Amino acid sequence: MATDQASDSKLAKKLQSTDEETVRLESEKTTNKARVAQPKSAKAQPKKNSAASATSASAASQPKPKKKKKSVLEKVRPPKKTLKEYLSSREGRIAAITYFVSVAVHGVILLALALVILKPELADDLFEISATPAEKPVEVPEEVFDNVKQPDEIYNQAFEDEPDVSVAQDIVEETQPLSIDISDIEPAIEIDEDSLSALAELAKEGEFGGRSAKGRKSLVKASGGSDGSEASVVRALKWIADQQQPDGSWNFGEIGESPNPGSYKNAPMGATGMALMAFLGAGHTHLKEGPYKENVEQGLAYIMNNAKIQPTGVDYRDPITQGMYSQAVCTIALAEAYGMTKDRRLRRPVQGGIAFIVNAQHPTDGGWRYKPGDAGDTSAVGWQVMALISAHHSNIKIPRNVFSGVTAFLNNAQYDDGAQYTYLANGGHKNASLTAVGLLCRMYLGWERETASLIKGVGVLAKTGPSKSNEYYNYYGTQALHHFGGEVWDAWNNVLRDQLVQTQSKEGPTTGSWKPGSGHGPEQGGRLYSTCLNVMTLEVYYRHLPLYQRNAVQADF
User: Do 109 and 158 lie in a common domain?
Assistant: First the structure.
């Protein structure tokens, strides 16, 4: 029994020892797990007191957040500045310049692409090529005009041989001498203050400022027009409009039921140009509402659609021997229409016409005649000069050497130190009609009103007086004396103005027209040619502002 109790006691102690060992092992196992769970840095923490250890152990048991990496931008972020301060700095200025250069380069690239991609008519509206005629032939791109027609009868027809032209000593017939002594012509002009003020205002609008309704009214009164002369202009324009062909052209040989057609039946470019000059002279354009808006628009379209693109410019000639006359009047009409309206569609047609004229000038003679390169005659020179002057007043650049050539030609065609002129240079008979042409050219090329030769030449015209039959002489003589002004103009105008009003047809299909006279052109141009010249003579009061009576004087050539 005692042995059994001792065995039981030993067994109890052994079990207790085993339980304690088990508890110890479990405790160590738990401690090892906690140590494994702690971050390595926790092992490096020094032991303090038990409370601190407990707190550290607790904190160590929490995962430590990762440290945020600082942005590179945050490291170099500049202090905030205003736009003004930034642009004032060196780096701001460089950035601005770089930006604008980039914009400009990209803009040019886009515009270049637009030229390739856009339709030709749209590209023409957006871009304008400014070409200045030069001594060498001017290349004119084929795309200058849209839908340019090249009629076979014009394009393929060769020019005829130049005819044998005989010039009369005096082609002015039945003149009416004026009672003015040459020695009494006074260089100074007396102008009342109202007229001077009106001219100054109109001059601000340019060379064509007098063609407005207001300008016409004031200048007719100031320059010697009348109600009768203005009524004649209205009748003449109505007759000219009635002769327009369905395709928009006019033709010297086609004038409906009216008698006296011209012999030129295949010169529609020249005829259309002259008709347009008559409408434009009275202020009628293709953009201004009025009775002849469509007539002018169709006429301009005809000229441009029938132009011929050449390496030397735009060719407006008719297939006749005297083709350069057509070139001049078409260019004048286009230049005046452009100058009056600033319609950009007309600018390059004017430039092309001027380029052709410049390149057709004789290289040593300085003049023009019937075909490009011909030695000049004073009549053809007068029309080309007026085309150049009209383009100049429409802000088209003209090379100075062109006018130097004209001056050289006039110097060789002059008589009596420039007071009178002959038909051809270097010899020939003096001629009243061509004296008027030569003096008008001299005025536009810079002769002052006090020039002795000009005063003498004006006296010659006054002594000769207006012609009863030669519209060509009257047309140029009227322009020259109107620019000169003074008593000599008043005397000339009083005679010719009333003569034209009285001789204009006022009955039947010819109402508004004039019967062809004599001299230079009526046979070829017939009633249409004579009517155009006469109506432009009656428009002289406002068609061109008088050179010596306005602030904006002639160009400096």
Answer: no
In a domain, 101, yes or no: yes
Pairwise CA distance, residues 500 & 248, whole Å = 28
- The mean-pLDDT minimum among 9-18, 145-154, 326-335, 523-532 falls in 145-154
**Does residue 252 sit in the same domain as residue 106?**
no
Considering the domain architecture, whether residues 103 and 200 belong to the same structural domain is answered as: no
193 and 266 both lie in a single domain:
yes
Q: What is the per-residue pLDDT for 125?
A: 37
Q: What CATH number is attached to the domain comprising 388?
A: 1.50.10.20
Question: Is there a single domain that holds both residue 308 and residue 394?
Answer: yes
Do 376 and 287 fall within a single domain?
Answer: yes
Nearest one of 93, 182, 216, 115 to 419, comparing CA atoms: 182
The pLDDT of residue 153 is above 50: no
| Number of structural domains found in the chain | 2
Cα(547)–Cα(203) distance, integer angstroms = 10
Q: Are residues 477 and 336 in the same domain?
A: yes
Q: Which domain holds residue 186?
A: 142-162+171-549
* 17 located within any domain: no
Please name the residue ranges forming H helices in 306-451.
Answer: 323-341, 347-360, 378-393, 400-413, 432-444
DSSP β-bridge partners for residue 424:
377
Write the pLDDT tens digit of every residue in 300-316. Answer: 999 999 999 999 999 99
The residue to which tokens 């002639």 are assigned = 554
Q: What is the pLDDT of residues 185-239, one digit of tens each?
A: 766 665 555 555 665 566 666 788 889 988 899 899 989 999 999 999 999 999 9
pLDDT band at 69 (very low <50, low <70, confident <90, very high): very low
Nearest 10 degrees: Cα torsion 45, 49, 52, 58 = 70
Please check whether residue 547 is in contact with residue 447, taking contact to mean a CB–CB distance below 8 angstroms. Answer: no
| 501, 232 Cβ separation under 8 angstroms | yes
Helix/strand/coil percent split, the chain, to 5: 60, 5, 40
Q: Please identify which residue in the block is written with the tokens 């009524």.
A: 231
- Indicate whether 537 belongs to any domain: yes
Estimate the crossing angle of helix 432-444 against helix 471-484, to 10 degrees.
40
What is the CB-side half-sphere exposure of residue 327 using CA atoms within 13 A?
34
Query: Which of 552, 536, 550 has its CA nearest to residue 477?
Result: 536
178 & 212 share domain:
yes
Residue 63 lies in a domain: no
**Cβ(471)–Cβ(522) under 8 Å?**
yes
